[in-house]
Each structure stands twice: as structure tokens, then as C-alpha cells.
């Protein structure tokens, strides 16, 4: 059966919401929401690129503000455990940015702030994807979002595993034993 035959059998209006109907209002509202969120996502991406490319205090603060703006638009989609984590991370970053102890001239310090903001960004986007905001697939997603976030935190991505590396650096080193303090055997 062709598309025209289906339209003829069901009537032309079956494919269009009636003027003033609940469906028309919902459709219009969804389009406006998608435009608003899409614009916010693009502004966040632009701020992220600027912060990573030139990690000045102003660029990093802009990235923080844009990410917070995205959170403000989409927090209803975030599951409670993730919501707690995001709020905790936002608070920690806010305190670092406004403590006066942060070396705003240090690229490494600015990048560490960016890493925290990236984490928030990933959690937000993962929760939005749970609602199929970005990608729609006909088959089930092969991995749960929690697994993807864990992989990214443990070593995926450019700075993945940075937190784990700091934990390893802080751990006390084992005392050398007699076998490890000896010179390696000669190949002669």
C-alpha cells in the first residue's frame, strides 16, 4: 500500500493535528523545547571548546555557566542519584572558582576545573539520552549509561582516569625489599 493510499483510507487529517487540539499544542511545545535545548547545547559546546583551547579563568567560568544553564533547562530528566552527584560537583567547582586559592594563571588548574565540568556535562547528556533525546535506535543500546560513564572515568577520553591517577600518587609506596634493591643480573 502506498503512502497516498494510506492517507486516502485514513483521511488526510489523520496525519495532522487538529487546530487548537492538545496534540497541536504538545507538538508546538516540543518543537520549541527542542530548539531551546539545542541552542543551549550548542552554547555549551562552544564554551567547552573555548575553555579547553584557551583555559583562561573567563573561558572556564563561561563553560561552567553554560553547563549550569543546560542543567537548569534539563534537570527534570536527571535521575536522583545523578542529580545528587551533579549538585555536589557543581558545588565543589563553584567553591574552587570563588575560593581565591585557585591559581587562575595555571593551565593545569583550569583544565582540572574543565575535567569536573566535563563530568557534569557527560552525566547530563547521558540522562538526556535515557529519554532518547539525541539518538534513537531500533535495537537496545549495547551498554548501560552507567557503564559508559564508568569507562570514561577510569581511562576513556583525553583526561580519563585523572582522578584515579591522583589517588595512586597519594598512596604510600611499598618499602623496597632485598630482592628489588639488588642490581639486575649481567648478560655477560
Structural features, described:
The chain is mainly alpha-helical and 188 residues long. It has a domain at 25-134 and 143-151. 66% of the residues lie in helices and 0% in strands. The chain is built from eight helices and no strands. The chain has helices at 3-10, 22-53, 57-74, 80-98, 107-130, 145-154, 162-170, 178-181. The longest helix is centred in the N-terminal third of the chain and has 32 residues, at 22-53. The chain is globular. The mean pLDDT is 76.
Number of strands: 0
**Mean pLDDT, nearest integer?**
76
Please report the distance between the alpha carbons of the first and last residues. Answer: 84 Å
Largest sheet properties? none
Radius of gyration: 25 Å
Low-confidence stretches: none
Estimate percent helicity: 55-70%
Amino acid at each position: 500500500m502506498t503512502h497516498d493510499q494510506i492517507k486516502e483510507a485514513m483521511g488526510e487529517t489523520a496525519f495532522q493535528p487538529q487546530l487548537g487540539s492538545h496534540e497541536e499544542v504538545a507538538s508546538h511545545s516540543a518543537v520549541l523545547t527542542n530548539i531551546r535545548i539545542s541552542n543551549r547545547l550548542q552554547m555549551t559546546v562552544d564554551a567547552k571548546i573555548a575553555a579547553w583551547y584557551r583555559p583562561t579563568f573567563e573561558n572556564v567560568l563561561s563553560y561552567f555557566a553554560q553547563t549550569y544553564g543546560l542543567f537548569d533547562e534539563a534537570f527534570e530528566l536527571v535521575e536522583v542519584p545523578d542529580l545528587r552527584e551533579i549538585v555536589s560537583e557543581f558545588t565543589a567547582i563553584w567553591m574552587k572558582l570563588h575560593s581565591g586559592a585557585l591559581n587562575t594563571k595555571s593551565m593545569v588548574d583550569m583544565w582540572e576545573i574543565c575535567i569536573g565540568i566535563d563530568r557534569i556535562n557527560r552525566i547530563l547528556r547521558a540522562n538526556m539520552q535515557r529519554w532518547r533525546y539525541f539518538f534513537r535506535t531500533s535495537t537496545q543500546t549495547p551498554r548501560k549509561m552507567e557503564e559508559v560513564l564508568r569507562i570514561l572515568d577510569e581511562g576513556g577520553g583525553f583526561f580519563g582516569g585523572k582522578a584515579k591517577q591522583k589517588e595512586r600518587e597519594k598512596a604510600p609506596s611499598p618499602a623496597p625489599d632485598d630482592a628489588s634493591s639488588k642490581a639486575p643480573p649481567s648478560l655477560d
